[in-house]
Write a structure and sequence with these properties.
mainly alpha; Tyrosyl-Transfer RNA Synthetase; two-stranded parallel ribbon; 54% helix
Length: 336
């Protein structure tokens, strides 16, 4: 580990296929951070099973996401890329931290509260959904993480990790670095193509609502052609035209230009030209990634070597923190 660099931890959950929103809002930004920070990027398969997963699909998605990480530009020699369940310290540390977490804290977490309001009378909520924010805290704290790049919807989880860390430090003496949630300036928040009032999500039932990183060009063109706009007919960057604004954000993020520059490009042009342009720049951005992913998935042995090496590197660091936690709590040292 490079002691002169601050540490970043972030992860994506393999509970569905990755979208353009995942790429522009997270992965593309991670690439920009990999030279400045010591980075741990994992595939959070333990988090995925708070909802029942089809085993073969879960295995496929984990490999696909790892391939996407690498194909998008994450250097596995600079970054620690690993699968969460391959580092047992995450599960063990999660239990130790659960015993230092209050029920009230978990019941106030947004995703649990949202699920509670949507649950029908005869339905039940799995305990994993209630307690998984502690696992997320363990993910972060095990690596003495300084910075967690998040969207606004994940900031609450980092705040909980800080609260848990402070409580543990106060009870047992300084053990954890207190992480900071950072919302990167260049990370785009890409919205639903059919309902631009909500974030693009891989779990949406309407396939026209999102673009997948691995969508074929003809699929991307079709989905963008069906994207919601409005009756104004003029390309403006305003909250009064949320559908158009969202498509401008996509162009702006891919081409690294300002929204005003995009508006200027389409002055005097209609939505047809605008949408065709959006589709083509998405295809241009994603096609090389798709080709590299296909190549990586054709050689699974290489991916296995990468995630094995990543897990070994992550485990070395995680075990140091876990051993410190156990010693401070009062567990006898293991002698075998």
């Amino acid at each position: 580990m490079d002691k002169d660099k601050k540490i970043i931890f972030s992860a994506i959950k393999p509970s569905g296929e990755l979208t353009l929103g995942n790429y522009l809002g997270a992965i593309k930004n991670w690439i920009n951070l990999q030279d400045e920070y010591e980075c741990y990027y994992c595939i959070a398969d333990l988090h995925a099973i708070t909802v029942l997963q089809e085993p073969k699909d879960l295995r496929r998605r984990v490999l696909e996401i790892l391939a996407i990480y690498i194909a998008a530009g994450l250097d596995y020699e600079k970054n620690t890329l690993f699968v969460q369940s391959h580092v047992p310290a995450h599960s063990e540390a999660s239990w130790l931290l659960t015993c230092n977490t209050n029920m009230g804290e978990l019941s106030r977490m947004t995703q649990y509260k949202d699920k509670l309001t949507k649950t029908k009378e005869n339905e039940s909520i799995g305990a994993g959904l209630f307690s998984y924010p502690v696992l997320m805290a363990a993910d972060i704290l095990l690596y003495n993480t300084d910075v967690v790049p998040v969207g606004i919807d994940q900031k609450q989880h980092v705040e909980l990790a800080r609260d848990i860390a402070q409580r543990f430090n106060s009870t047992y003496s300084d053990t954890f670095t207190l992480p900071e949630a950072v919302m990167p300036k260049n990370a785009a928040k890409i919205m639903d193509l059919q309902d631009p009032s909500k974030k693009m999500s891989k779990s949406d039932d309407n396939e026209n609502s999102y673009i997948l990183i691995l969508d074929k060009p003809e699929v991307i063109r079709r989905k963008i052609s069906r994207a919601v706009t409005d009756s104004v007919g003029v390309v403006n960057y305003t909250d009064d035209q949320p559908g158009v604004k969202n498509l401008i954000d996509i162009i702006s993020s891919i081409e690294n230009i300002s929204p005003n520059d995009v508006v200027e490009m389409f002055k005097g042009k209609g939505y047809k030209d605008f949408k065709e342009y959006v589709a083509e720049i998405i295809i241009k951005e994603l096609s090389p990634i798709q080709e590299k992913v296909e190549s990586l998935l054709a050689n699974k042995k290489e991916l296995e070597e990468i995630y094995t090496e990543g897990a070994l590197k992550a485990s070395r660091e995680a075990r140091k923190t876990l051993s410190k936690m156990k010693r401070k709590i009062g567990f006898l040292p293991v002698r075998y």
